[in-house]
UniProtKB/TrEMBL annotation:
Keywords: Heme, Iron, Metal-binding, Monooxygenase, Oxidoreductase. It holds the Pfam family p450. The keyword Iron applies. Its cofactor is heme. Heme binds at residue 441. Gene3D superfamilies: Cytochrome P450. The keyword rRNA processing does not apply. GO terms for molecular function: heme binding; iron ion binding; monooxygenase activity; oxidoreductase activity, acting on paired donors, with incorporation or reduction of molecular oxygen. SUPFAM superfamilies: Cytochrome P450 (SSF48264). Residues 1-29 are annotated as: Disordered. Belongs to the cytochrome P450 family. It comes from the Bacteria. This is Cytochrome P450. It comes from Aquabacterium commune. The lineage of its organism: Bacteria, Pseudomonadati, Pseudomonadota, Betaproteobacteria, Burkholderiales.
């Protein structure tokens, strides 16, 4: 495999005159004795620490974290190339797989590797093809109706025009209901019942994976703190719920006609697993149901939260999104009722889609990705050993003026033909919020549909009175496996037409 070469920045301590460079010669923040760079990063701001270092040391550097010698790559061409070299040359970090297994999460497509991953990926991809996602639309509409009802209730309850909505929490209810309905074919409805059992348990998992991945000592293997015991209990309950849903689905699948036309993700996976040569077990199915719940909830809700904040802070873009929805989701008598919306209607919302791309460029929920070398190899001509972690900084080229002019500004028009000069020709290969290569996010079409649906519902039904943060400034970024905004509160008013 031929590798791209990177020019070292002028500030870098490495001469490009003497290839091959050694990994240990790469520039990087000076490590401290014993602890390396570990004490120079903050757990919940690690993405910003990396981004800051890249600005100083260049797009190919080294850091030493938690006993690991980590290569850091921020050049998007090179990132795309490494992501495409999976599963043969790079894998997801083995540590993440070990931590998830220890927590009791069975392997799903996110952590599986090699042939096991390839088999799971084939099964999962079939369930997420754009055509298949369209069949989920009625169920998604139903969940969007519940979110609308919840916010209408909040708006109408307000005595002085508006009441606070905990934006991230409500959107997590929306996405957990959407994905559970889709995965299990049952109505979980945390939006209306206030019974957020599954959501409360899932919410503990990402932060725990993040904390444990960066813990200096695996103390929980020796002594469990209350939060570790709470996590064990959550894992027991979620795994128990998944097994119950699987048992119910198996009963339904005894009917040959149901087996011939499975109705949801879980049934489809069970049928696939039962095929004689599938190589899939019930454990694999459980792992993938768990994976969908985890991968589909936080990411989509967080992307929506960020976009709503961006729109609120950019009134011109917000007004254009509202105008587009009023124009395209309309009848001669007035707004087109949500019950009549179709995926084709949402597909026409070009400005809204551009807002999503722009928001994900500035606020990717995964500002970095991590891969691990499976064998001795080289990156940009620099040899690395098998097992070397390579941290990919996804938000570097995406926020450089040379690549996206006026990069700091939220300008959705750069994603449309009207303002192509504001984006590089290959914009979608530079901004990669869903990753790239064979392991690109299989849920991306579903996620885009959910985001458009919720945003269109919001703008058709409500006026946004405010999107506030605790300190009145743009929301702070808090890293806990995904990059979430801190403390967003939204206030809405029922539009007179609603
Ligand atoms: C806006 C929402 C979402 C974002 C930003 C997002 C982002 C990502 C990213 C960055 C990756 C890693 C890709 C790579 O390593 O190249 C990924 C993987 C994955 N995502 Fe998503 N995702 C979203 C929604 C979803 C949804 C709704 C689902 C499913 C219900 C999902 C399921 C998965 C799975 C299963 C993987 C692992 C794929 C593999 O390793 O083969 N994601 N996602």
């Amino acid at each position: 495999m031929k590798h791209a070469t990177l020019e070292a920045p002028e500030s870098a301590a490495v001469s490009t005159q003497a290839p091959p460079r050694r990994f240990s010669d790469l520039p990087g923040p000076p490590p401290w004795p014993v602890v390396g760079n570990a004490l120079q990063v903050s757990l919940h701001r690690m993405h910003q620490n990396m981004e800051d270092w890249v600005k100083v040391h260049g797009p190919l550097m080294q850091v030493r974290l938690a006993g690991f010698h980590v290569m850091v790559v921020a050049d998007t061409d090179l990132i795309g190339q490494l992501l495409r070299e999976r599963p043969e040359t790079f894998r997801r970090p083995s540590r993440m797989q070990a931590i998830m297994r220890e927590m009791g999460i069975p392997d799903g497509v996110f952590v599986a590797e090699g042939e096991h991953w390839a088999r799971q990926r084939r099964m999962v991809m079939a369930s997420f093809a754009p055509q298949q996602v369209r069949t989920y639309f009625p169920a998604l509409l139903n969940v969007a109706h519940c979110l609308r009802a919840r916010w209408l209730h909040t708006a109408d309850q307000a005595t002085e025009g508006a009441q606070d909505i905990d934006l991230q929490a409500d959107l997590m209810r929306f996405t957990v209901d959407a994905i559970s309905g889709l995965a299990f074919g049952v109505d979980v409805n945390t939006l209306q019942s206030n019974d957020d059992v599954i959501q409360r348990h899932l919410d503990k998992i990402f932060p725990t994976i993040w904390r444990r991945a960066h813990a200096l000592v695996p103390y929980w293997q020796v002594v469990k703190l209350p939060r570790d015991r709470a996590l064990d209990e959550s894992m027991r309950l979620v795994n128990g719920a998944i097994r119950d849903f699987m048992a119910q689905a198996r009963v339904r699948l005894q009917a040959p006609e149901r087996r011939a036309a499975p109705q949801n993700l879980l049934e489809a996976m069970l049928v696939a697993a039962d095929a004689p040569d599938s190589g899939m077990s019930d454990e694999d199915v459980a792992g993938n149901v768990f994976t969908m719940l985890l991968a589909g909830e936080d990411t989509t809700a967080t992307s929506l939260s960020w976009m709503i904040e961006q729109l609120w802070r950019n009134p011109v873009a917000l007004a254009r999104a509202r105008e587009e929805i009023d124009r395209l989701l309309a009848t001669p008598e007035g707004p087109l009722p949500m019950a009549q919306w179709t995926p084709e209607h949402l597909a026409q919302l070009d400005w809204l889609e551009a807002c999503i791309h722009e928001s994900m460029r500035l606020k990717p929920v995964g500002p970095f990705n991590l891969v691990e070398a499976l064998k001795d190899t080289e990156v940009a001509g620099v040899p690395i050993r098998a097992g070397t972690p390579v941290l990919l900084v996804m938000r570097h080229d995406t926020v450089r003026d040379e690549v996206f002019p006026q990069a700091e500004r939220f300008l959705p028009e750069r994603w449309l033909p009207e303002a192509e000069h504001l984006a590089p020709a290959s914009a979608k290969r530079v901004s990669m919020p869903f990753g790239a290569g064979p392991r690109i996010c299989p849920g991306r079409f579903l996620a885009m549909l959910e985001i458009k649906l919720a945003a269109a519902m919001l703008l058709q039904t409500f006026d946004i009175a405010a999107v506030d943060t605790p300190d009145g400034r743009p929301a702070q970024e808090h890293m806990a496996l995904t990059m979430v905004p801190v403390g967003l509160k939204m206030r809405v008013r029922r539009r007179t037409a609603a």
